[in-house]
Amino acid sequence: MGPWGNLRIKGIDGEKVEAEIGMTVQLFNTSYPFHYHHPQEIYMAPTKPQCIDQNKFMVMHWDSDQFKQSRRNNGWTVEIDGKQGKWNKWFANQDTDKESLTYFERNAIHAFYAKEGCNQTIQNSGLVTVWSRSTAQDNEQSTRICRPSTGKMTTNGLNPDDKTICELNDWKP
Fold it and tell me: Residue 102, Cβ neighbours under 10 Å: how many?
């Protein structure tokens, strides 16, 4: 919801915090495409899936051998190709009874997929995640969505099997 969280905390009782808390709301049968950001992040999914593989997430470090990387002046270009079902191996089931929190390291490429079906009983239901970032006000704070390799975003957005390009900038301490 927006480029930053719903709540931005610069400090508490005079102590510098620079934290952010936000949320993502996603309908079933949609993908929150591959994305990344400089701040580390913790996700909590309070949405209980109706079947074990309904809410899926993926997280990989940008220099994973599953991706192709090339160096550019101020960072890295990362190519993600999930074709031929390869993306299915990258995604894990998010079961709120077992793994209610997920940690994403700085510049980790991550995504969510909410599958439709599973005897869905509530019309227009979906996945809700609440997230927090502890160093949200350093470097590039905004979430960066990876783009289609064709350069054009379709009206359907991006799916996990679409060839995607992420342009990560070097982190400045």
Answer: 18
DSSP code for 154: -
Q: Report pLDDT digits (tens) over 96-123.
A: 677 678 888 888 999 988 876 665 566 6
Please tell me the distance from the alpha carbon of residue 44 to that of residue 41, in angstroms, as a whole number.
10
Q: Which residues contact 99 (CB under 8 A, 6 or more apart)?
A: none
Average pLDDT, stretch 117-136?
A: 71
Amino acid at 132: S
Helical segments of 55-149, H only: 86-90
| Cα angle: 168, vertex 169, 173; to 5 degrees | 130
Give the pairing type, strands 147-148 and 68-72. unpaired
Domain at 7-67+85-144, CATH homologous superfamily: Jelly Rolls (2.60.120.10)
Residue 17, both tokens: 């915090």
What would the pLDDT profile of 12-32 be if each residue is shown by its tens digit? 898 887 788 888 888 877 888
What's the CA gap between 78 and 115, in Å, rounded?
Answer: 26
Contact 17, 91 (CB under 8 A): no
Radius of gyration of the chain (CA): 17
